[in-house]
Amino acid sequence: MFKQLRYFRSVVRLNSFSAAEEENYISQSAISRQVQALERELGFQLLERKNRLFALTEAGAYFYQKSLVLTADCERMCAEAAKIAHGDGASLTIGFLRSYAGDEFHGALEDFSARHPDVAVSVEYGNHEELYVLLRTGQADLVLNDQWRVFSDEYVNLILTACRSLLEVSAHSPLAQMERISPRELKNFPCILVASPSQRETEQAYYQQAVGFQGDFLFAENLEEARLMVIGRKGFMPVEGTGERLMMGAPITRVPLVRGNEPILRNYCAFWQKKNGNPYVAEFAELLKKQFQDGAQRG
Questions:
Q1: Which residues, listed in sequence order, are joined to residue 123 by a DSSP beta bridge?
Q2: d(CA 211, CA 223)
Q3: Are β-strands 265-273 and 142-146 bridged in parallel, bridged antiparallel, or unpaired?
Q4: pTM of this prediction?
């Protein structure tokens, strides 16, 4: 019944059998059969079907709401039982770029946790160099990072996407009216970077030498603080991640960064050591890749 209940919840939450099929990696007819089997076992109808449309019955609506808490309790119980049975149990440690603004990682994490609720996932945040150290020393199984250096044969270097470099500027700044902008044109504007105190010098050196920003540099401890500085017109911030649009009404505008007339591209990758024996690393990497592919199709 637990699996049938999960399928039923997917259908209701997504309001679609076909969407539930994609989420659970089974055929639409199989999900429909599982929901019907659940109804037979319960002895009452959960859904009223009209051609390709459906609606919850009164009993189905009540059952759905109560099942949410029940399922959450059951998942937690199973996870705790697995820890007791297997000691500390399976785990996966992921390094995540502190200043990354895309939502692909969160989608992959949600998918992975749904598949493996008993696997303890921990996230370590860091700047580019900090993530490399975590990976090299084995403190992280996998990291999401952009390509700062030549690929090494010691690692799996899975390119997730190549996207245009963007800057976030205040929507009220004259820079927001530009269709594109080059590093040379920003020499009189401060660059705002998200960096821990120990990594500020390294981050600044990269953006000076590799990107070409020659103005002053300001630093923030986290992405929210950096964006407040952008809104306050303290400077501009290079965007880490994909996507060229912010939420409607946001007081920030994104402007493409170019060199000459060509966009400056950045590779974002999943990196892990080839000798890493964690069986969940490659699976999480594939889920992450799928999130990037789906995002590109939506874009």
A1: 94
A2: 20
A3: antiparallel
A4: 0.63
Residue 103 three-state SS: coil
Residues in CB range of 233: below 8 A, 6 or more apart: 170, 172, 173
Decide: 116 and 280 in contact? Cβ < 8 Å. Answer: yes
Torsion angle of alpha carbons 68, 72, 78, 82, nearest 10°? Answer: 150
User: Does residue 244 surpass a pLDDT of 60?
Assistant: no
Model pLDDT, residue 79: 63
Q: What burial class does residue 207 get, using C-beta atoms within 10 Å of its C-beta: 0-12 exposed, 13-18 middle, 19+ buried?
A: middle
Residue with tokens 């009220």: 172
Dig out the tokens for 132 from the structure: 């490399």
Exposure of 66 in the CB half-sphere (CA atoms within 13 A): 6
Backbone angles phi, psi at 219, to 5 degrees: -130, 145
Q: What is the pLDDT of residue 248?
A: 46
Strand-pairing partners, residue 212, are none
Amino acid at residue number 73 = D
What backbone phi and psi angles, to 5 degrees, belong to 239?
-90, 130
What is the DSSP-derived secondary structure letter of residue 224?
H
